[in-house]
Design a protein that fits this description.
Elements: H1 5-16, E1 19-21, E2 34-40, E3 49-58, E4 63-68, E5 75-78, H2 80-90
Antiparallel strand pairs: 1-5, 2-3, 3-4, 4-5
Length: about 90
């Protein structure tokens, strides 16, 4: 569980850099490296929303592939400049 403010802020910044393609349902050849549940609070008057993320760290090109259950996101990729940072946060 990640709760410290600095790390949470870094995760928010990284997820904003993901290039999302909402209407794609890819099939992955292997099991995800990380499964994460993120809690988002959009409005103080509403309960937080939970979204599931399945994350693969691609060794060949040092990028990240992410599948989200959020309809607005779907399938996404993160470039190698940001992939290492995400990997360090999630696998430490």
């Amino acid at each position: 569980m990640i709760t410290d403010k600095e790390t949470v802020d870094n995760l928010k910044k990284l997820f904003k850099k993901v290039k999302w393609e909402p209407n794609i349902e890819p099939k992955m050849a292997k099991k995800e490296d990380v499964k994460a549940t993120l809690f988002f609070e959009y409005d103080n008057n509403m309960p937080e929303r939970l979204f599931e993320y399945w994350i693969w760290f691609n060794q060949e090109n040092n990028t990240v592939t992410i599948i989200s259950n959020n309809e607005k996101e779907g399938y996404g990729t993160l470039d190698k400049n940001n992939a290492e940072t995400l990997k360090n946060i999630l696998l430490k």
